[in-house]
Amino acid sequence: MQKLVVFSGAGMSAESGINTFRDSDGLWEQHRVEDVATPEAWARDPELVQRFYNQRRKNILNAQPNLAHHLIAQLQEQYDVHVITQNIDDLHERAGSTQVVHLHGNIRLAKSSGPNAQYTQEFYPINGTELDFKQDQCPAGYPLRPHVVWFGEAVPAYEKASALAQQADIFVVIGTSLAVYPVAGLVHEIPAKCKAYYIDPKADYLRVPKQYQLIADTAVNGMKALVKQLLD
Predict the structure, then answer these.
(1) What's the CA gap between 151 and 214, in Å, rounded?
(2) Which of helix, strand or coil describes residue 170?
């Protein structure tokens, strides 16, 4: 069975009503990114950061997977499908994808805010939408924080994602501007014989090598076109 690897970004979830990470004014849900998505923000005002991610979690739980998520999951019938996502939502899993690597974390999980938070592999499921800064703690006594990779932190899952890209028979990049490194470098790690596709309304060869076939469309329309091509 051929290995099909999907690398998804914010545009993947946009059609489910989840805002892309940053709007053109540099704000995220009306907050400066520096105030809610860095270790320094947590050190300065952890309760603000916790409230921000509680609201994000609520928005994500109210959202539903879109057709593109479902089409990727359905490809598991014909291919060994692995998803690498930059998204912190769990819409791929809720659509039925069973092998998902979260490069930037999963907002449905919590982890310790202790000294080695960015490298920990111990995660705690969050029941519902809320983490309480004062009450929810890890066994060592540190408050739990969202399992989200913030700016300035390491990306521990990158090594696994890189290995998947290097093994791909088919590699699909979908809904990402490829502006965030190191993860954007994955597009260059695929084998020479790999069939590669880039689905994004702004898809162009400034972002990916000529090995890629461009599908300049939304996640849903692009996946419909790709599935037809793959199954034909």
Answers:
(1) 29
(2) strand
pLDDT of 21 reads 55
Residue 29 confidence (pLDDT): 60
Active site members = 104
Question: Distance from first CA to last CA of the chain, Å, rounded?
Answer: 17
Amino acid letter, 224: K
Cβ burial of 222 (10 Å; 0-12, 13-18, 19+) is buried
Q: Please give the Cα distance from 103 to 87 (Å, whole number).
A: 8
Which CA distances in Å does 205 have to 83, 213, 216, 228? 23, 9, 11, 23
- If you search the block for the tokens 């034909």, which residue do you land on? 232
pTM of the predicted protein model: 0.92
- The shares of helix, strand and coil residues in the chain, as percent rounded to the nearest 5, are 35, 20, 45
The structural domains of the chain, ordered by start, are: 1-18+65-104+155-232 (3.40.50.1220), 20-62+110-148 (3.30.1600.10)
